[in-house]
Write a structure and sequence with these properties.
The chain has one domain: hypothetical protein PF0899 fold (2-Layer Sandwich). Helices cover 62% and strands 16% of the residues. It is built from 5 helices and 4 strands; from the N terminus they run H-H-E-H-H-E-E-E-H. The protein has a 4-stranded mixed β-sheet. The two termini are 32 Å apart.
């Protein structure tokens, strides 16, 4: 009976860990939907995210900013604001990318790449939370 108690406790712990993974995935999906919806209703918020991503490649002489087809026109209209985030005056090329979702952003430069896709940012946050919780 001591063996049965031990086995029952192991199963309980296993179920909790399994549930934790499912809850994290659900929270991840919910966060992605909330952020996407918020950015759709408040495109200026997205512009702030673009500015932060661009700052990460300060010093680059050439930027290729890849965005979804839905976001391209908005970004073209606000290119001056994006340039104001930079101390240099790099060449900036905007590219519409059909593989990106609205709100997603990839920046390629001569110094490297910034992956500012919403899903990627959420994954990074969740990974950090998971590591802190371990």
């Amino acid at each position: 009976s001591l063996e049965m108690l031990k086995r029952a406790e192991e199963e309980r712990v296993e179920r909790i860990l399994s549930s934790e993974e499912e809850i994290l995935k659900l929270a991840f999906d919910i966060a992605e939907k909330i952020i996407s919806t918020e950015l759709k209703h408040s495109p200026k918020s997205w512009l702030g995210m673009v500015g932060e991503a661009v700052k990460k490649v300060a010093g680059a002489t050439e930027l290729v900013i890849r965005v979804s087809q839905e976001d391209e026109a908005f970004l073209i209209q606000h290119l001056k604001e994006i340039r104001s985030q930079l101390t240099e005056s790099p060449t900036i090329n905007l590219v519409s990318d059909s593989t990106l979702k609205p709100g997603d952003l990839l920046i390629q430069t001569n110094l490297g790449q910034v992956d500012a896709r919403i899903r990627q940012q959420i994954e990074t946050t969740f990974r950090t939370l998971k590591e802190e919780g371990s």
